[in-house]
Design a protein that fits this description.
Order of helices and strands: HEHHHHEH
Distance between the termini: 38 Å
Helix content: 40-55%
Strand order of the largest sheet: 1-2
Number of strands: 2
Shape: elongated
Number of helices: 6
Radius of gyration: 18 Å
């Protein structure tokens, strides 16, 4: 995107109802590097997981020696995410006027950036009928 397109997009977000979608890989959106993957790899796997691509299957296997992940493993990963510094670019994006934000990745990086500006609601998929009606 060129500078004019970005400026136009920001103008529309400021003046029109807008929705932000953040997927599982939102942490690598700006840099191309996956800071969550790198932090978990370095702190919990000794840097032994592949670094050329974010291979989460192999990362999970290395965390617990190929066994299923335990609640301790998840607690350790949560702590790693808590130690990732606040991302200024994410804080800037989240401070814009969003009508709603949909994400499949609610973690400490996200919640630290939004503070009390957002209310997190969980969708209850058991109440959604096959035709999409609630």
């Amino acid at each position: 995107m060129d500078t004019q397109m970005i400026s136009d997009l920001i103008g529309r977000i400021k003046s029109e109802p807008s929705v932000l979608f953040l997927g599982q890989h939102y942490l690598r959106s700006m840099t191309g590097e996956d800071c969550f993957y790198e932090a978990v790899n370095n702190k919990l796997c000794g840097g032994n997981a592949p670094t050329e691509t974010s291979n989460y299957k192999e990362l999970w296997e290395r965390i617990n020696g190929g066994k299923p992940l335990t609640s301790t493993n998840f607690s350790d990963m949560y702590q790693v995410v808590c130690d990732i510094p606040t991302l200024d670019w994410l804080r800037s994006i989240l401070s814009m006027r969003w009508g709603m934000v949909f994400t499949s990745a609610v973690d400490a990086c996200l919640t630290r950036c939004v503070g009390t500006n957002f209310t997190f609601e969980t969708l209850d998929y058991t109440k959604i009928a096959l035709d999409g009606n609630i």
